[in-house]
Amino acid sequence: MAASKTDPAQGQPQTALVVGASGIAGSALVARLAADGHEVLALSRNPVPGSAARHIGADLRSPDSVARALRDENPTHVYFTAWSRQETERENIAVNSAMLGNLLAALGHAPVRHVALMTGLKHYLGPFESYGQGADLPDTPFREEEPRLPVDNFYYAQEDVLWDAADRQGFGWSVHRAHTVIGHAVGNAMNMGLTLAAQAAICRETGTPFVFPGSETQWNGLTDMTDADLLAEHMIWASTQDAGRNQAFNVVNGDVFRWRRMWPALADYFGLEWEGFSGEPRPLETQMRGREDVWSGIASRHGLVEPDLARVASWWHTDADLGRPLEVVADMSKSRLAGFTGYRRTQDAFTDLFDRYRAERIVP
Prior knowledge:
alpha/beta, single chain, EC 1.1.1.-, eight-stranded mixed sheet, SDR family oxidoreductase, 364 residues
């Protein structure tokens, strides 16, 4: 077990509980916290391979399961990155707010000082079933002071659960609204980085061009993204600094780009010919339909660790992000004024991630 590290904001030993530790954001948090010498507890259904954290297995949907798993644990800082996708937003609200509520109730005995909650820009855009629709959408770049949209949204429900528990249990909180998060994970439901790497491998295998799947607006307009390591850095910063206490923040890399420039750069990394937007979106769910055998053949020949394409690529999520008919850019001024200076160049975040996936034989 790594030695506990002093919390610079409060001068006491810190023990961190990462919830959703096997996901993109959670695994980045575990790695950064462990590298910094914190004691780390990693809560997820399954252990994270190669993790330095102590695994805690629990089903967040079961109050009894979570209570049993955490009854002897005493975290001081909690990082909540888990979610469960449901068929409707009403179901998303019921399930995901209960997961957070179950976790916080199970920690009623613990000396929790801060809970950091990861959400996203659907706070401003609305849930998947009404995404980017209606006249109430705020103008870009999105700022944290925007009022909630008049729609059901599980992010709002989670915030309410967090605030109620903070009032009862006396801990500080922060909310972290990330844009599309790219980082290291396999089997994640929303993983653009690995999805694009899988698309590139299939294009190379089949001799087809690397085709942009999204909308004209996304091809030509400005956008931004969030590197998972930057998100981890931001969540740890907010949880240990007075300026981050009881605040909601946007979290993006700090640069902006257009896909019409980024797409050729990614194609060049993979050594592929490319095609941009041409008349209408060309979704990956259509482009990649029936490619499971192609991927399994690639995996066999190159000795890849995951032959199941469904655990590698989340076509639907990348289609949703790149198919948006509106500009999506978030403002980072609130974090900058509060003292957070973290920055990532998005092109480097992509290529560094691809290098890592190749090194670990997840993509060829």
